[in-house]
Amino acid sequence: MSLENNAAAAPAAPSDFIRDIVAAHVGEHKYPRIHTRFPPEPNGYLHIGHAKSICLNFGIAREFGGICNLRMDDTNPTKEDIEYVESIQADVNWLIGGWAEDRLGLKPHGKTPETKTGEGKNDFFLPPVFGTSENERKHSDVKLEPFYASDYFDQIYEYAVELIKRGKAFVCDMTPDQTDEYRRNGKASPFRDRSVAENLDWFTRMKNGEFADGTRVLRAKIQVDAANVWLRDPLLYRIKHADHHQTGGKWCIYPMYDFAHCLSDYVEGITHSICTLEFEVHRPLYDWILESLDLPRPLPHQYEFARLSLNYTIMSKRKLMQLVQENLVTGWDDPRMPTISGIRRRGVTPEALRNFAYNIGITKYNGLTDVSVLEYAIRDDLNKRSLRRLAVLRPIKVVITNYPAGQVEELNATNNPEQPETGWRKIPFSRELFIERDDFAEVPPPKFFRLKPGGEVRLKYAYIIKCEEVIKDAAGNIAELRCTADLDSKTGGATSARKVKGTIHWVSAAHCVDVEVRLYDRLFTEAEPEKDGRDFKSVLNPHSLEVVTAKCEPSLKDASAETRYQFERLAYFALDLDSRPGRLVFNRTITLKDAWAKEAKK
Ligand code: ATP
Ligand code: MG
User: Fold this and answer.
1) Is 452 a residue of the active site?
2) Torsion 286-288-291-295 (CA) sign
3) Which fold does the domain 3-143+261-359 belong to in CATH?
4) Which of 147, 538, 566, 568 has a C-alpha 20 to 30 A away from that of 234?
5) Residue 55 CA: which ligand is closest?
6) Can 37 be counted among the known catalytic residues?
């Protein structure tokens, strides 16, 4: 299929300045294929900011018939771990699976690009083509895995040697502090004019492990007093005597991000290297490295967009790690975390997250996105897909005195009014019920249309009941409500026309199942947790988790992890992975309405 056909077949996606650029390139046949990448560093779990980047990079590959490589940007072994590699793979698969997984660029396990040292001056590293087409994947018995920057350590090393040979890199013996100071002041390193032969010797010895960490670095020779500080002879390689999660003990020197990134992009044949705005100032260095090596064209090009910042949220892996390590949350996948795994565990669907990423758009200006935009996308998605169920979170007992003991009626209840084809289910009604404590008020405030002494209310899918008597225990707490039902008022019945102002939910006491319900709320009480340098841990919401035992209609015994539920009049819920047969745990994904907006108005 040609690029044009693919583009035409893709569903409408929003346009933005990056997609406009890509569309123009497709139009002028600038590249044989559009190739993007998502390059996380495996030093923590992915968060919702990464989701924005994933949706952009895979979205472009999907809309323009291209491929998006998943690449671990693993140049800093001391901060990285295989646990993070695995979680990143799982999160990316969850987010794009069923949507853009055929766009996922992977490579055969263990395969690294070949180093070509050919005749022509330009062909010593031709970008290899890995098996990434759908066909190749289907027919390959080789396990596929993500790309790793560490796959290219051999090449990157050779590229560094080549830069030295071209007089464009030198080994510098200054201390890190001296180097910083010299760069700040635009001063040349005293080692800048070492000969090529000397530099090659020192660099080889660095690689061979002769020197301690921090004693020498390889630096690019660009311009010591460049206006852009990133061009002031930046570091390309540092010494780190540390084992790497992929390459083990093979290396004691590791390339810096700026050196490894553009070259990894090049080696993979990336066309559009899309990153967040803080890398804009690095772009001249990205281009300088590729051009200084005089690599065969086409070269990848870097484009920058605004990172996602959400209010009531912190988004840096380092700080999220603090929450985990200090046990302020239960783990990276705590449903209150803005991590993809936390959001997933909370019950949000990949569709909702992708819709959110589409709704916020791609711009060049950093700003703060209101978390209500995310919550809207979640509610919108869950409203469409959730099965409606009756559950009572904080029960109070109701006895229908005129309903015969032992009698059980099976009433019809709608599964999902948004999807009539999901039909009906039966819910049992009997003499003893539970209703929500909040739905009864002994001394009702004005406009209270739920149950009150002497008042009437409709039980959803059932009868109108009237509260005749409030029974209290010795301590004066309400023990139960004695009510009568209007037995002619059954919902859907021939004589059901009578209307009352309020409708409440309920479950039958004899039939309901007890489940644990975890009521999650925002993790921070302040919109900007770190405003004016405040410690974000000082504004953690003490009520971000409340656990209750809820009484649920019996059909919830068969709840499944894939299904989403709306407990009517309450919130959306999903089964938590802590659930065991006979002991289900539900997470509140999100309330039906935005309680925080109401609070803000007050
Ligand atoms: P953090 O600063 O949160 O620790 P990071 O930038 O160090 O994140 P990386 O693993 O380096 O995390 O990021 C992988 C990709 O995700 C990069 O291309 C980066 O630009 C992008 N990314 C990271 N954070 C955001 C964000 N908040 N919004 C959009 N894209 C992001
Ligand atoms: Mg980073």
Assistant:
1) no
2) negative
3) Rossmann fold (3.40.50)
4) 147
5) 1
6) no
